[in-house]
Amino acid sequence: MDTTTVKPEPAASGPSSDETPPQTVLPELRAAWWETGATRRAEAKITGILAELPYLTGHAVAVAWRADRLRTLLVGGATVAGGVMSTFGLLSTQQVLVELFGSGPTPDRVRAAAPALLMLALIATVRGVLAIVVGHAQSGLAPRVRQSTQREFFEATSAVRLEAFDAEAFSDDMERASHGGPNMNAMVRSTADALAGLVNLTAVAVAVLVINPLLLLALLVATLPPAYAALRSGNLEFSSWLASSVRNRRLWILRSQLADRNSAPELRSYGLRRFLLGQYDMVMTAQTAEELRLARRVTLTTAFGAALGGLALVGVWVLLGTLLLSGRIPLSAAVTCVVAVQAAQNALSTLTYQLEGIFESGHFVREHLGFLERAKDYSPATAERPDRLPTGPLSRLEVRDATLLYPDRESAAVDHVSLSITAGQTVALVGENGSGKSTLAAMIAGLRSPTAGVLCWNQTPYEQLDQSALTARICVVLQEHHKWPYTAATNIAMGDIETEPSRPRIEQAARRATAHETINELPKGYQTLLDRTFKEGQDLSGGQWQRITAARGFYRDADLLIMDEPSSALDPRAEDALFQDLRARQGVGTTILITHRLANVRHADQIYVMHEGALVESGTHDELLRVPGRYADLFTLQAAGYQG
């Protein structure tokens, strides 16, 4: 892992230069262009925060409504009803106080207050029932909201074109958006609770306003400072998290490297323990400094708001005492006002806390929604032609002056390549590492779109074809394949998920890939789970996994089969059996073969030699050997190694 000595930038590392000792910092910790703008958005003024609340709460309600209408109605209705009960409760409390502080014998005053006391008991019971209803409805609503939000996220991540993962900051953008699910739940819950606080506050405000308008003004003055401090603290916390997103991803990677079964062998054989622990200490030191800095800022902000609020609250009690002593309000009204002030304080505190929660969660939700919009830029283009399906079996595939340039690369990975393949041919792409073979194959497979040029399937440009229909006609067996944690049978049947899995067809594909005997030797045969981290799961060697992957390709039985280094991990017997089966496809199926072992492409109908992204030679094996060139040099070099 390369390291560079740099001065940490505030947006990426957090601590100021006098708080962070000189150290070697990973390049990933430097501020990226997108972090600066995102952090500025996170540090918006409180007025901007409040301006966003209607949008955020409206979106929360819309998401909840789509997820479960009945439970959304229950939450909203019961919350409003609970607030209305609070109003009646305050009025009943005032009536009780009026009767108790009235004139006459004590028994008579208690009897006069009894109806209001019974009303208070009834209201408390109803509010308790409503709270249970809200809690039950929210518990059922939460998983549905989370499922809906995460489904949106996965729909976007699984639909974007492959080049999306080459784009700068896409992974970080995706990582931030992945927090949308739980935070959408939090925003929905906070919106419901804020509604309850708002209804309660309205009821209390009306009561205080009736007693004396000055008390309402004083109460607002006492509550606004801590409310502002809470909102500001939440904004600071999100800003810190946003600026630390790259560092947090690096920490997650380091944790997996230090405590993962797959990395454990190399960690020990290369003695990487001290190196990785050093990297962890380096990143965590910067993260800890940022968290300490954040804690200081949040503490100061909260303490300042609480101090101002406390002073203002003292003013409320002084004002109330002055009004009482001057005879401008009766004792019963003063006591009611005390109760109302406490209720208002609780309601405002609840409302402020929930608004802060809405805003904090809203940051993450905005990242989620923004990612969904940005992901559309990477989605496959929808063809405008009505006939978007590939017409008939593959008869001819053409690559016309195709070029592909990766982001931030000066030279093209594929540079103005043209070739044609007819049905039934076996075509080989050969060349040294980095010559562009796999990139060209990815373009032919429809996984990557050319920067320039065009690819045609039966004379129809790829961009005019339905992407799903096109990829259904093509099967790609990758060298860097994914080890899917499913059974052996499922791993093979995944090659054609549109049809019902067929055990005879699965076994036939496994035999063609020389995987049948390997699978039968597993504890549960084809029903063995291929992942050691699960109970009764099994490990496979690299060569065994490569056979499973090849079997998946044979199971699909597509018009075009692309095999990228299909035998790199196979033993000689398995490799020979695999290529015998591939040679049997000639004249029947169309195959594109990518390999460094040139002896395996001698029987190809056409061999294309790539170098630095360009197509430099083409012909049959015999034709290429007769002409001094790159293929002849590579083949002679490999042959000499076998001859000793």
Automatic annotation (TrEMBL):
InterPro entries in the cross-refs: AAA+_ATPase, ABC1_TM_dom, ABC1_TM_sf, ABC_transporter-like_ATP-bd, P-loop_NTPase, Type_1_exporter
Residue spans crossing the bilayer: 73-92, 112-134, 194-222, 303-325
Domain ABC transmembrane type-1 residue range list: 73-355
Ranges of biased composition (kind: Polar residues): 14-23
Keywords annotated in UniProt: ATP-binding, Membrane, Nucleotide-binding, Transmembrane, Transmembrane helix
ABC transporter domain: residues covered: 399-637
Superkingdom to which the source organism belongs: Bacteria
GO molecular function: ABC-type oligopeptide transporter activity; ATP binding; ATP hydrolysis activity
Gene3D superfamilies given in the database record: ABC transporter type 1, transmembrane domain, P-loop containing nucleotide triphosphate hydrolases
Membrane topology: Multi-pass membrane protein
Region described as Disordered: spans on this chain: 1-24
Compartments, as annotated in UniProt: Cell membrane
GO cellular component: a single term: plasma membrane
PANTHER family recorded: ATP-BINDING CASSETTE SUB-FAMILY B MEMBER 10, MITOCHONDRIAL (PTHR43394:SF1), ATP-DEPENDENT PERMEASE MDL1, MITOCHONDRIAL (PTHR43394)
Protein name: ABC transporter ATP-binding protein/permease
Organism, scientific name: Kineosporia babensis
